[in-house]
Here is the input.
Amino acid sequence: MNFPSDETGQVLTEMQQAGIDLSISHDVVFFHLFEQQTQAQAMADFVTQNIANVKVSVHADETPNVWDVDCTVQMVPSHEAVVKQEADFEQLATKFSGYNDGWGIEA
Here is the structure.
C-alpha cells in the first residue's frame, strides 16, 4: 500500500512496515489535550452523548495541569478514514478549547 506523503501517511507507512495489517479493523485512538479538566470532561460528555461507537477516556496527562481525552474508534485505518476522523475530532476539541495530539492504534 502506498500512502500520501504527509504526517498521517508516514505513520501508516511505519505501521505497515512494522507488520500491522492495515486492511482489517483496529481500535484507533485519537488523542486530545486540554488545559482544564472541565474542558476535557465537556468534550468527553459531548462525544459520549452524541457519537455512537466511540469509547472515551479522560485522564490527567504526564504534563502537570494538562488533561487528555482519548477517543477510540473501531475502524479500518485507511489514510482517508483517519484524516477525516481526526478532522472531525479536531473541530470538537477546538469547540471545547482543546487540540488534537495525534492518533495511534491500540496494540
In short: DSSP finds three helices and four strands in the chain. The first helix runs from residue 7 to 17.
